Amino acid sequence: MKIEDFKIQWFPGHMTKAKRMMESQVKLVDVVVEMLDARIPRSSTNPLLLSVIGNKPKVIALNKTDMADSTCTEEWIAKLKNSGFPVCKIDCSTGKGVKALIAAVQLAAKPVIDKWVKKGLRSRNVRVMIVGVPNVGKSTLINRLVGRNKVIAADRPGVTRGQQWVTIAKGLELLDTPGVLWPKFEDPEVGFCLACTGAVKEDVYDRQDAVELLTERLRDRYPQALAQHFKIEFAPQEGIDSILAKIAVARGCIKAGGLLDLDKVFQLVLREFRSGKMGKFTLDEP
Q1: How many CA atoms, within 13 angstroms, populate the side-chain half-sphere of residue 281?
Q2: Nearest-5° Cα angle at 190, 41 to 177
Q3: Which single residue of 60, 70, 100, 133 could bond 199 by disulfide (Cβ 3.0 to 4.6 Å)?
Q4: Quick one: which of 189, 144, 112 has its CA closest to 35?
Q5: What is the spatial distance between Cα 220 and Cα 273, in angstroms, rounded to a whole number?
């Protein structure tokens, strides 16, 4: 299938509710951290965020760099820095880059603190908010910043509940927000990328379509890694049905009577892509 035909069942009401919640919460904070998925920096960016945060300082945290193509990641960092915002490369699962992120937030907050001093106001803790699409690693980052599991984290969208303030460093308080700003899914490429990384629930798109497009993307961009991971061989322009059939045989996804269990193949391809087991891939080209 073509990427233009990939559909997400988008519900505008969900986005409206999330936007209102974010607008009310952003009034409480001084600095905003936008978390992006390093595999899909463009698709995990919400164009509405800037209009919501206004002139508040923003820091970009590029997460899941351990799962992304390192060359593409460096190109994306250069591109994002050109937008005028500081960018930190982090890996929440190991904590790599988290200290640098705190330092970047403190630096971004300096003009805010200077303004307080200039007005003769009593200094208080700088308040920070982390925003991002579901499953980008917000709760895992907060757990790292706080140093203990105060926030529930799970590898599926929509697990964060309620809202709470936590101290993350001297002079810094963080508001965990379950409200997310969803991109509009009118762009099928955005919908596809968010589906592949698990940012949207599987009941709003066709899993087979997502896996076929993902396999085609990996066949074209990362053929050696795809073949090596599943221990299969395929020609440069081999059909996707044929490649998925080879994966089924290699992984023993066979039903009674020798029929291929393609639904099981769709599940394992998505699962192993999302977990990083398949390799380091970037879907969004800089």
Answers
A1: 26
A2: 65
A3: 133
A4: 144
A5: 16
Of 62, 87, 173, residue with least CA distance to 128: 173
Look up the pTM and report it.
Answer: 0.88
How confident is the prediction along the chain (286 residues), in pLDDT tens digits per residue?
A: 889 889 887 666 666 777 787 888 888 899 999 999 999 999 999 877 888 888 899 999 999 999 999 999 999 999 999 988 999 999 988 889 999 999 999 999 999 888 888 888 777 889 999 988 888 988 888 888 877 545 444 455 544 445 667 888 888 888 865 446 566 677 899 999 999 999 888 888 999 999 999 999 999 999 999 999 999 999 999 999 999 999 999 999 999 888 999 999 999 999 999 999 999 999 999 8
How many Å apart are CA 88 and CA 37, to the nearest integer?
Answer: 12
